[in-house]
Amino acid sequence: MTVAKRNKREKPDAELVKLADSLLANYQKPEDLIGENGLLKQLTKMLVERALETEMSEHLGHGKSETVTNATGNTRNGHSAKTLQGEFGELPLNIPRDRQGSFEPKLVERHQTRWTGFDDKIISLYARGLSVREIQGHLEEMYGTEVSPTLISAVTDAVSDEVKVWQARALDALYPIVYLDCIHVKVRDSGAVRTKAVYLAIGVNMAGHKEVLGLWIAQTEGAKFWLQVVTELKTRGVQDIFIACVDGLKGFPEAIEAVYPKAAVQLCIVHMVRNSLNFVPWKMQQEVAADLKTIYTSSTVELAEQMLGAFEARWDKDYPSIGQSWRRNWARVIPFFDYPPEIRKVIYTTDEIDKPLPDIFMRLAFPATPVVPRVCWDAPASISRTAVDRCARPARQRPVPGRVRSSGCKLQPILCASRVVQACRIAAPGRAACVRSGLDDPRRTAHCA
Q: Could you cite one Gene Ontology molecular function of this protein (predicted)?
């Protein structure tokens, strides 16, 4: 049945096949099709101009050489020349005009000089780390069109307005999980390359989707600036956070609790392990890491504390700083033990921050500080133009022995972000009255407001 549907869907129209055969009757080499004066470019020009003529006929209410039927007596008034830049290089077009100048074409708008999507290609190349001159050379090589550096700068600068609107947008009242972390990027500043901090906040909303809440630029990472970040989230509408996942920066948890006193602050276990291994020689790191794993993979807090005691008994003589660090931060390490294993996998690390910004780490240096927020906005857009409301990546869950699947289920059960949020809402301490109510229950609205 599936094969039959696929074949039916892929069957081309007979008339289109005949048309294609007639157009390709004189085809001999690729340049005849995709070259500077190839068939595709000529066909595109013809179709666009015919479509514009059709738009003009609809605007006037009568076709070419037909009787004028509109009340104003408006008629055609020749054509104006325009050259569009796009994937086929430069495409000269004849745009129809009317005598009253009221015609507004939809396919090729007034003052438009580039095909829709051409700007996106420039932004995509810029987000991948190409300089203005490299973008200029790439477009000329690939599409045979010369683009001025001024145009490229104008296109990338236009994103700044989108960034400002996005950065100030209103946020949801409640986020079950929020990741807060800082990455460092190199920026050319006054002729020198300097390292600057990019503060990032990524939340998992009630629909189970990851959402970049905002990004901020500063000279260095510090708890005081994080307090400003969290305060801004509050002013933009975030009234409550269930779980805040952070690194081990001193004063960071206190900054969050000052704004969201009910939030559970979870230190990043990955950061804790990495910092612990800094005290250990390379040859011993694998063994020490294995013993640390017994702590954070324990089933309960009590068992985890026993494993920590066993770790200290074995390693304190050689590496006392590791045990001291875990003891000192123990209150911030253990919150994730209050949740089921599905939630623990999601909140035990802030490495989710790295996933939406893969291109950031590919750059040697940004050309200037104002460029950083634009590229942070554009980097996730190398595949999709938005970094907001990206769906959380599903994590495959192993089948549980003895679990009965429904009759319509043919795949292994998976753990999606939406289920994680549902479990989080149920398991969140102190929120049982709200999370157990229905989606339309006024108690939920009152709590979330």
A: DNA binding
> Are 107 and 140 found together in one domain?
no
189 in Cβ contact with 208 (< 8 Å): no
Q: Is 56 within a domain?
A: yes
Per-residue confidence band for 181, with pLDDT thresholds at 50, 70 and 90 = confident
Helix (H) or strand (E) holding 93: strand 89-98
Residues listed for the chain:
449
228 & 145 share domain? no
Q: How many domains does one find in the chain?
A: 4
Q: CA-to-CA distance for 34 and 85, rounded, in angstroms?
A: 15
| Residue whose C-alpha is closest to residue 375's, from 201, 165, 114, 131 | 131
The answer to the question of residue 336 being in a domain is yes
- Separation CA 61–CA 2 (nearest Å): 47
Same domain, residue pair 223 and 278: yes
Taking CA atoms, 209 is separated from 66, 86, 391, 419, in Å, by 56, 35, 4, 11
Pairing mode, strands 395-396 and 414-415 = antiparallel
Report the distance separating Cα 48 and Cα 31, nearest Å: 21
Tokens coding 352: 């989710």
Q: pLDDT for 356-373, tens place per residue?
A: 554 444 444 454 445 555
One-character DSSP codes across 156-178? HHHHHHHHHHHHT----SEEEEE
3-state secondary structure of 26: coil
Q: Are residues 217 and 323 in the same domain?
A: yes
For residue 131, the enclosing domain spans 119-165
Q: Are residues 282 and 204 in the same domain?
A: yes
Tokens, residue 217: 């630029």
What's the pLDDT score for residue 298? 93
Taking only the tens place, the pLDDT of each residue in 99-147 is: 888 888 877 777 777 666 666 677 667 666 677 788 778 777 766 667 7
Say whether both 229 and 109 belong to one domain.
no
